[in-house]
Amino acid sequence: MKKTLITTALLALLGGTAPMALAQADHSAHHGGASAPSEADARLADGTVKKLDKPAGKLTIAHGPLESLGMPAMTMVFRAAQPGLLDQVKVGDKIRFSVERVGGVLTVTSLETVQ
C-alpha cells in the first residue's frame, strides 16, 4: 500500500511539471527564442585593434576574455576569415568580434566597431 502511494505521488509530481516545461518551451519559441540575443552577445568579445597586416590577412587585438574559447584577456594575433574584415577597421578602433578555431587557427569571423 505504501509503495503504491509513493508511486502515485511521484507520478503526480512528474505529471504536474511536464506540462509546465512544455508550455515554457512553447512560450520561448513563440517569442522567437528570447535567449538568442544574449547567446549571440556571449560569443562576442570586446577588443582594441593594435595592428593590421593586410598582406598576411591578420590583425592584432588587445581583447577581454574570450568566453567561448575559455581564454583570459590578452593581446594576440588573429587571422581574418575574409580579407574585407580588415578594411572595416583601423588601428585604435574599439571593436566587438567573434572568434573561432578554423583549421586549428584562431580566426576572427565577424567584427563591428564600437563608439
Automatic annotation (TrEMBL):
Domain of life, per lineage: Bacteria
Keyword Signal: yes
Signal peptide range in chain numbering: 1-23
Keywords: Signal
UniProt cross-references to InterPro entries, sorted A to Z: CusF_Ec, CusF_sf
The keyword Zinc appears for this protein: no
Low complexity bias (residue ranges): 26-39
Stretch list, region Disordered: 26-45
Protein name, as recorded: Uncharacterized protein
Species for this entry: Thauera chlorobenzoica
Lineage of the organism: Bacteria, Pseudomonadati, Pseudomonadota, Betaproteobacteria, Rhodocyclales
